[in-house]
Structure formats: structure tokens, C-alpha cells
Amino acid sequence: MKPTDSTSDADTGQPTVVSDGPEDTFSFETSGSTVEVTWSDRLQDFYEEFIYKPGLVAWDDRRTRIGAVIMFVYLLMGIPGAWFYPAPSTNQVKRGLGPFETLDAPLGSTGSGEDVLGMVIHATPEMLIMVVSGGIFATSVAVLIGTVAGYKGGAVDRALTSFSDVAMSIPGLPLVMVLAVVFRPRDPVLIGVLLTINYWAGLGRSIRSQVLTLREESYVEAARTMGVSTPRILLKDVIPNLMPFVLVNFANAARYVVFASVGLYYLGVLPSSVDNWGIQLENAYSQEGALVGGDALYQLIAPMIAIMGIALGLILLAQGLDRVFNPRVRTRLAGESEATAENEDRETNTEVNI
Amino acid sequence: MVEYGDRNGESLDRRRFLQLAGAASTVTVAGCANLVSNGNDDNESPRHVSHVNQVPADIQWNSSNPANTPQITNRVLFDPFVKYNFSTGKFIPYAISEWNFGGDTFELTVRDGLTWSNGDDVTASDIATQLRIGLYTGEPYADFTESIKTPDDSTVKLQFDSTVNEQIVTFQILADRFVHQKESEFGTYLETLQNDEQKGLKQLGDFAYQEPIASGPFEHDSVGQEQLRLTLRDDHPDAEKINFDEYVFEYRESNQQAQQALQNGAIDSVFSLFVQTDILKNFPKKVTQIQTPSNWGYGLYPNHSDPHLGDRAVRQAIQYVINRAQVRDNVSPDSKTAPEYPVGIASDNQTEWLGDAVDDFDTYGVDSAKTKQATTVLEEAGYQKQNGTWVDSDGKTVELPIMVPSDWSDWNTATDTVVDQLTQFGFQATKETRSYDAMLGNVFPNGNFVIVAAGWLYGAPQGSFPYFSLYHQLVKNNDSVTYNYPAADSSRGGNRADVTVPARSGSGTMTVNPAERLSELAGSTDESTVNEITIEQAWVTNQDLPMLPVLEKVEQTFITGGEEWDIPKPDAEVAQVQWANTWLPRQGEMQYTGN
Question: Do B442 and B564 have their domain in common?
Fold first, then answer.
């Protein structure tokens, strides 16, 4: 039926809008020819719904802008910075230089002649990898378990919820410390995963409750009645609506990874043969005597600023993104933009969805 | 009515406040040399607060039990046999008031009037008991001691099976030994040892001696997680020279905590504490630093069963690459020295003992990384550099993880530098940290390491006599590290094998058995033989590098003087002992003067 239609369209050379309309409504489930169209359409939709509009809402918030700029600085430090700036090593510059004394070591040097700024910069790439891997791991496990549990309900829900309850009840830091000592991980991706090994549990629970409301939505019900498979419903209908919430929690998980990794490196639980702000703090404290009058306070302050900066960036981002989650703010802002002028009804839908 | 009630409440509050404040002040002054109530309100007594780096409640005073043996508290509780003075280079008689060497005999006389804290006299048989136990627990004098007798109540006589070297035997029997194993407590263990050695060693090794009977001027009073309290014994012969009633040890875990406690006056003394120059200059003036030789310091023990480190070429290359002067300057140039020659002799004594032969020895570069020599020696042994990293003939990368105690800050700085030096040369070096307890319990005895940082010399005062450090490097190291050196004793993973090194003359090789040669040295009274064997074995250590020497430290002891304590000047002869804060009170040289 479809092929004939399209040929006839091609033959006449006229886009038969009128005939297309009833066709579509008539054969709703046969989507043979619409596939090509909907792919880009859907991408467009997806972009508008889940990137452009939330982005617009988020960007309107000053916190997001500042947070994004801060994170951009860390990206600069982590990628081109670590590439171009010389790696720290002992005796690369004069020992015990103070900050702002020479351009060779703008933030000064340690008692062993390591460039403090170099140490800060070269700790960034691994930290970013850890943050991203930990964030992705925690949020994806949480989304997977939360959505499946919330959507399926029944025995699956009970099993998954009990599982996350168990994971939640294991004390996080001691567990991570034991695992770190046993595995002595060196790969930042693995460290990120290890640090968030049970961080996902709480997030999973809240996602589950979000899904519990989402699954009662009419469009989800419609999809269900049409016989769309569960994974498809979860992927196409449920998870996209959770994205803002997930993003906010991604930023929080990332912040947790920063603090946990710095703490564990400081305590010497994680292998110390890499560059990390935690190790830098530990060196400043124990080897340079920064707190016992060793005139090495700047060596403590430099990594502290780096840690505070990234944490601040992530918090601001998370708070900014949080607004995306707020339907009132979102509608007002997105409604004003010209991009949304033509599909108002869809807009209302989104609002209801959330 | 209301007013009355208020006032009543107020006075109550004030009274309660005073009570609380009273309780609180007792707690706060517990940290410093101060007057504390000793139960009787109008009679207060001064105390000396020192530092201990072990949890006091865990300490047990049986030196034959390796767990939680004391590092400093025993030096107050128990009297030393003698004390070695670094300034004069002589032993000062103490609990052993006299000793006589007779070629194949050694006679000790117990100090008159010395008693245990339970009131018993310290007798010759107490001393004999502990020396006899030493025969079973592997004390070095066991190798040549035939019998230990007590001709009378105050004399102990050791009979050797042949003549021995006087200096060695004197150091072995007198140095670093304490009157600590009372016959009534340890006699049963000795009996078991004599009947069934294995059973006896097991029993003795398991015995935790937690309520020690003291022979020193202070006795055990009470102990907790944070503090060990010792009280003055009036019946000690030197009690009258001490004018304070309590000697308290407070626990501080890390160097930084101890430094902080010294700075703010929470503790009065620390027996040994690494303090780098920058921190030292900010210390209060009243804190006096006493420096003594340590004959000990940061070295690297290669695991000789590792495929790469078992290869002499790799050990030599590492020694060539390490720039010792740079390591010293990074750590603390004031309290560390870089040994001129990597040999089994302490830095100060190297030229004296090696004499003219010193020119033959390789320095491996004290203040430079001799990468050219390192490259040559590696390439000759079949190693090559691939993509900037050294690999062996099978293409396997030379990996050098260096394990170091996490709580020793100076050693961590040193290791960071060494790792960078080795990495720049093309070795895949990394630093690994473990707590010192974990190292003692697991890493050292089981040889679970590729390279481990530990002392390359025997330690003071014995370390100033080369025999001890050579024996430490080649045969039986002091830290019980299983480093699998073939020439070492079986307890250190070796089989007392021969070693072949290039001859010192420059052509050909020489094969010697270090264990045999050193026992020959210990039995020799002939000076030229002693010199000859010393140089020969030093040559073996220099060429074969059973351990890699990096730094030697200067011991830093701290005592607070000022208006509270009357102490001698840091360079005074009487203070040149280890450790001054436990010795000076016995000499009446550390008096409480505070008010």
C-alpha cells in the first residue's frame, strides 16, 4: 500500500498532503515509509525536548553559566593543559620556591623541587576521567535499576528494591576502602566505578518513585496498549523524561567522586604513584610540614583551591540544571522562545509529563 | 522570691562550674610538664611527658615476642647494661659496673645496690638468665659462647669456645642490652628452652609481658590507649638524682603530630624525630635538639629472587642512576648525609677502615646520575632500551615498585626522588606505601616486595664497627627482611653461598664466602686479619650490592629546656648518648625547675 502511494506521489510530482493525512490516521501501526522521516524528526524532537529546551532553561540561570565556565576551565586544564604543561617531577625547578616568584613555577615548588602548578594541572585529567566514569556508572546503574523496578512493579520491583536497600545499607566509605586495598586500582576509570560502587542505590530509589508516577501517564499507557515492548517504552518514553533529574544527580555523583578520591588518596588507601590533589595535600602536610610551621601553606592551598573549584563548578551546574526539573520555570522560559511557538500542545504535554 | 531562687541557682551553677573546671584542668595539664595532683590536694608533683609512637596499651615488654615490642619506653623502665657515648667513643658502666675480656672469657659485674621494682635484688643469675635465653633466640654471641656461669651473686662469666675479637664481643654483649628479664618471670621459659627448644621458642615468642617488673628508676603504674604512666622508684640507686615523680609517655601517631606537640609544649621530649630544616627554625627556642650519629639510614633492599634484581647489573645500574646528594638535599640536608661509597660501612668510618684501598672502590656517583655507566652495565648484561623503557633480553620491562613505610615522611620524600630519577633513566619505577606495622608483619618476613626501603646499616652504636654492618648486609640483616640474597643466612632467604665478584686488583675474579669470612673476623684478635677481611667484604658489598645505600641520617632527639627543665647544652658530652631523654635523668642532668 505504502510503496504504491509513494510512487503515485512521485509520479504526480505533487506532495499530496491531503491524501497523506487520512492515510496516516488510517494505518497508524504501519510505519514503513515514515521510518526515514521520523528518524531525523525524532532526533530533532529529542534535541528540542531534551537538550535545547532544558539547555535554554538552564543557561538562563546564572549558576549554570558560572558552573559551565568553571568546568570548561577544568577541561582546558585536563586536556590541552596537561598536554602542554610540563609534568611534575622532583628537581625540575629550584626547591622551596614561593608562589608568584618565578614563571618556571608560578605557584611555587615543593621541598623536592616539583612545580606545584604542574602537580595541580596534571592531577586534572585523571580526576576528570574518574568523575565521568563514576558519574556514568552511578547514574546508569541507578537509572537501569530504578526504571525497571518502578515500571515493572511486582516481584521484579521487590527484588530490585531489596537489592538497592542492601547496597544502600553497606557503609560506603569503609567498603570502598576495603576494595581499594584489595584491588589497588590504578586505572582512573576503575577508581571512579569503585568509588561509586554503592552510591547509585539512593539515586535508584528516587528514580523508581519518579517512574511510578510516569508509568501512569496516558502516553505510556497508550504505548502499553499498543503492545510496545517494555524496553522500548522505558527507553523512548520513560527515561527521556527523567533526564534532567538524572543530570542533576550525575553532577552530585561527580562531586562525591572528587571528594572520595581526594580523601582516599590523602589517606594513602589508593596507590600513590599518580598525580592527585589528595596526594598533593598529603605531601604538603606530612612531608613539607605545612601545618607545623614548614612555610609550605601555599602547597596546601593550591590543591585545595583546585578541589573547591571543581566541587563548586559541579554544584552550580547541578543547581542550574535543577531548574530544568521545575516545570513552571521551564514552561515560562521555553514558551517565550520562538522555537516552541509552533508546537504549543506538545509543550503542554511535557509539562504534564513532568 | 524570684531573686532568691535565681541567686541560689547561680551559686549552684558556679560551684558546678568550678567542679567541671577542676576536672577539665586535670585533663588539660595531663599534656605537659606541669604540676598535677597526685591524689592529695595540697601535695603536687612534677612530671616529664615524653613521646611514644606506639599505642601504649598495646606495648608489651618481652623483647623475644616480636609483636608490639617497645621502642623507647623500655629505656626508662629498664636499666641499660652500659651506655655508649658517641662523643668519647666509650662505654659508660651502668647496670654492669665492670667487665673483663679474657680472650675466650668475658666477665660481667652487676652494679651494687640494683633492685627490681618488686624489691628483689638484681642478681647475677637474672643477668645470666637473659643471656642464656639469648643463646636460643639467635643473639650473635650464641655463635661462639660455650657456657654462661655465675661464680657469685654479682658476677656472670661467659666462656667462649675459642678466642674472639674483643671489640666485637664487647659490642655484642654490652651494647643496647637492658636488665629486663627477671629470673622469676623468665626462668620457666629458659627451662622449657633447655628441654625442648622449639616448644620453648614458641612459648617465649607468644608471651606478652604487660606488667613488667622494672629495674630502671621508674616503674609501670598505669596504661591506656593514649598514655603510659611510670612512677619514680625510691629504691633505685639513682632515684635521688631525679626530682620529678612521674615519667609519662603520650601517644602521637605521626611525625607531624609529634612536631606539633613539641611546638605547643604538650610534650617535653621526643627520643627520635625527623624534623626538617624549615620546621626546625620555627620551633620555640626552649626546645633543644641533640644530634647523635645513627649509623643507619634509608637504603633499598632488592629482592634477589626477582628476575631483574637478582641480576647484579640491574642493581649496579640503579645505584649508578640514584643521585644520592640530590636525594639528601630534597629530604633535609641538615639531618641526612649521602654516603661516599656504597659499602657495608657507615659513612663516617669508611675512609678510616678502607685506608688506601678506598681508591679501588666505586662511588657510583654521589652527586650525579651516572647514566652512561648504568647504560653500559645494562647493555653488557643483555638489557636494551625500547621506546624509552629498559627491557630484558626476553622483552620484559624492568619494573621497580619501591615499597616504603607510609608513615615515615622523610623516606617518602626520598622515595619520590629516587622513583623520578629511575623513571627518567627509563626504568618503570613506582612508589608503593604500606604502614610500618604491615611491613614488619608481612612484607619483611615473607619477602613480598621487589624493592623495599629499609636501613642499610646495623644502627648505632654497633654500626660504627664495620663487622656489624657487613654482617647486616651480607648475612643476617637486623630487620629480618627475607631478601633472598644467596650468601645470606637461611633465615633471610639465602643459603650462605659463595659470592664471585671481580677481583679488587682489576683483573680476574674472586670467590669468597661472606658468612665464613665474617665469622673468621669475629674470632680474630689479629688487627691485620680484621682489616683484611673488612676490606675484602666491603669490596663484596660494593661490587655485588646486596643492599643499595642511599642516605644516612643524623638522629634528632628533642628535649624542652627553658624555665621548666634544666638540661645540658646539646653538644655536652653527657648528652651524646641514645637517648638523652632517658639517660640524662639518671645522671641528674635533667632537673625539673618549673614553678
Answer: no
